[in-house]
Structure formats: structure tokens, C-alpha cells
Write a structure and sequence with these properties.
The complex is a heterotrimer of chains A (about 110), B (about 140) and C (about 130). Chain A is of the alpha/beta class. Helix content of chain A is about 30%, strand content about 25%. Chain A has a 5-stranded parallel beta sheet with strand order 4-3-2-1-5, sandwiched between helices. Chain C is about 30% helix and about 20% strand. Chain C is built from 5 helices and 7 strands; from the N terminus they run E-H-H-E-E-E-H-E-H-E-H-E. The chains are: A alpha/beta (about 110), B alpha/beta (about 140), C alpha/beta (about 130).
């Protein structure tokens, strides 16, 4: 099985296609792959407590690691210490870490 | 020192139009600080990122003159990333897609940027530990 | 190295460029010896639609003589040995049935995406 890093830059309030990325993450995890969903740019808008994000909760339940770029969070006034359950703040370095390990990285 | 890796990025966005550019430059910054070998294939509007004729301007809305505004110019960022790469024992190989340069009149790029073609993207990817494509919308 | 080009963005600048720039890039890399395949998804599934015609635009006295011919370009990729997959759910959502699309493109469902992606060293989403 492989490791995938899906970088989600978009949010469902503006772009309905975010559903593709969430669905892909779920399917890859269901096949036994290790999956990280990294939220960046407006993708972090889903991380704010109270935001409508049922899909993210399902992904966390499905074993997908959901991370949010710390700069994007701060840029949007979202406290890194107070995110939707199961989502962790992370520096962007994790993308380079995973690329350096040869992980398949897909930008959405 | 961390093991030296080679990473490739394919970019498409022109400057000043998308948050994708900022994230891309942040990623390249992280990689060059680690002394990695970094390849950039700039496609379409991204060939304007190292355009040598960018100029700073004042900001009357905020009452700042040119010096005070200190406007971010992406050509300066690309130059700084290249310098950072060299300083850390790595490299930044920036290739502008030639036909994209031609149709945009973006032939004057900063020193160190070279003209290339899609074959370069493939060659870069083949010799990299990973390649990240950042498409445009 | 094998790479899968996932094309989602559709009709973006295609008139000015006279091509879809990612379909074009795929052709160019294939010509340089790349081992590539294409997955059309989202609105880009419409690139497999029959009957596309972008000809006839004029701007003042300037007339476009080489409009994009995206369906032809997809067919040409297939002819070159580039596998072109198209996401069947996205076709259905857009009202495109089996009789509405080009020959030679292979319909795949979302449930087969993990297996499809596993077959490539690189997955590039444009």
C-alpha cells in the first residue's frame, strides 16, 4: 500500500469540487493506503469550529490524518488551538517532508 | 545535515492573481532552506514570476511611498530563493516554458532563469524524489 | 516512470491558447518519450464530447483561423498510445451518455480510482 498526501486548497463554500478530494481520500484510505489530507489557503475555512464540515469528520473517522496549514489558519483568524475535532494545525513543512520521502502528492 | 533530496514543482499561475503562488513560493523556500536541489518548471502565466521588468510602486491608499511600501516583487523572491539554495549547498533550477514566454512577451527574466520546454518537466520529474504539480483555475 | 495527468479545469483560456494547455503538454511530453496517461474529470470530461465546435470567432478585423479542436486532440492522444480515461460519474452528471463521447476513451468509475492511481509513479492534478 502507498502513502498519499492530498493538498486541499479549496473550500466547499466556493467550490463544490472539494467533494472529489474528500471522496478520493476516503476511497484511498478504505483500500489500506496511508492518507494525509492537508488543508491550506481557503481549505482551512472548514477547520473552524462550527463550520459545516461533516465530510471532514467522516474522513477523520475513516483514519485519514487531517492537517491544517498553521499560516493559513492564522491568516484567517482561526485559532490553531481550537479546531474542528480531529484536525491538527501543522507547518507547511510536512508537505516537503512527505515529498522528500517519495509520497504521492496531489494538489487540489 | 539532512539528506539531500531533489524536488520538482510545476507552476502555472501568474504573479499577483492567486494564493497558489504564495503557497508554492513557501514550499520552495522550505526546500531550499534544507539545501535540496529544487527544479521549477514554470508554465503559462508562471513564466512571469521571474520577469525582470517588475517594478515596485507606492501605496497612496495607505499613505506609503515606494520605500515604505516595499512591495513584494516575485522576481526578487525568486532571486532570494536561488541565493538561499546556493547558500545551503542546494540549487534552484528555474525553467520557463519557452512558448509560454513568447506569447506573453516575458522574455526578460532575471539571471539564472533558463528557457525550456515540456521535455524539461519530464526530465526533471524523472530525476526527482517527488514532483508537485500546482495547476491553475 | 509512469505519470497520470488528471485534467479537471476545462475551457480555460482555450480560445487564446488555441489548445487546452494540459492536453497540449501531454502531447509534447509524449513526443519527448514520456510514459503518460490522462484522466479527464470534472468539467474536463466534456473534452470527450462529440460535436464540439469553437470555430468562427472574430475580434474586429482579426479572425481566428486555428480554433482549438479539443476532441481531435484527445483522439490524437489515444492514437499515440496515451490511455485516456474519463470519469463515468462526471459524464453522467453532465448528461453525457456512452453514445455522446469519442471512441477510444475509457470510462472508469470513482470506485476504481485507488487502483488506477496505484498504477502510476506520479499523479499530477492540473
Amino acid at each position: 500500500m502507498a502513502k498519499y498526501l492530498l493538498i486541499e486548497t479549496r473550500d466547499p463554500f466556493e467550490a463544490s469540487d472539494v467533494g472529489f478530494c474528500h471522496d478520493l481520500a476516503r476511497r484511498l484510505a478504505a483500500e489500506g493506503n496511508q492518507v494525509i489530507l492537508y488543508l491550506v489557503q481557503n481549505g482551512v475555512l472548514l477547520a473552524r469550529p462550527g463550520a459545516r464540515a461533516p465530510a471532514l469528520a467522516e474522513l477523520v473517522q475513516a483514519g485519514v490524518e487531517v492537517l491544517a496549514d498553521d499560516f493559513s489558519l492564522r491568516e484567517r483568524g482561526i485559532s490553531a488551538g481550537r479546531l474542528q475535532a480531529g484536525i491538527k494545525s501543522s507547518p507547511l513543512d510536512v508537505v516537503i517532508d512527505e515529498m522528500a520521502e517519495g509520497c504521492k502528492v496531489i494538489w487540489h | 545535515m539532512a539528506e539531500k533530496k531533489t524536488l520538482t514543482f510545476a507552476l502555472m499561475d501568474p504573479p499577483y492573481e492567486s494564493a497558489r503562488t504564495t503557497t508554492a513560493l513557501r514550499l520552495i523556500d522550505i526546500a531550499v532552506r534544507r539545501g535540496y536541489a529544487v527544479n521549477v518548471f514554470a508554465y503559462e502565466g508562471a513564466v512571469l514570476l521571474p520577469f525582470a521588468r517588475q517594478q515596485p510602486h507606492p501605496n497612496a491608499v495607505h499613505g506609503r511611498n515606494v520605500e515604505e511600501e516595499h512591495h513584494l516583487l516575485t522576481k526578487d523572491v525568486v532571486a532570494a530563493l536561488a541565493a538561499e539554495a546556493t547558500q545551503n549547498g542546494g540549487k534552484l533550477d528555474w525553467v520557463n516554458c519557452g512558448l509560454c514566454v513568447d506569447e506573453r512577451g516575458a522574455g526578460e527574466a532575471i539571471e539564472g532563469v533558463r528557457r525550456g520546454s515540456p521535455a524539461d518537466l519530464w526530465k526533471m520529474a524523472e530525476t526527482s524524489d517527488a514532483t508537485l504539480v500546482i495547476g491553475t483555475r | 516512470m509512469k505519470a497520470l495527468n488528471i485534467i479537471e479545469s476545462a475551457y480555460r483560456g482555450t480560445i487564446e491558447e488555441q489548445d487546452d494547455t494540459i492536453v497540449w503538454l501531454t502531447h509534447a511530453m509524449k513526443g519527448a518519450g514520456a510514459d503518460l496517461a490522462v484522466l479527464l474529470r470534472g468539467n474536463a470530461v466534456n473534452y470527450a464530447a462529440l460535436g464540439q465546435d469553437a470555430a468562427g470567432l472574430a475580434f474586429g478585423g482579426w479572425r481566428q483561423t486555428q480554433p482549438p479542436r479539443l476532441a481531435d486532440d484527445i483522439t490524437a492522444l489515444v492514437a499515440k498510445g496515451v490511455a485516456v480515461y474519463v470519469l463515468s460519474e462526471d459524464l453522467a452528471e453532465r448528461g453525457l451518455g456512452p453514445g455522446d463521447i469519442l471512441n477510444g476513451v475509457e470510462r472508469v468509475g470513482r470506485d476504481s480510482l485507488p487502483q488506477l492511481l496505484a498504477g502510476y509513479d506520479q499523479v499530477w492534478h492540473w
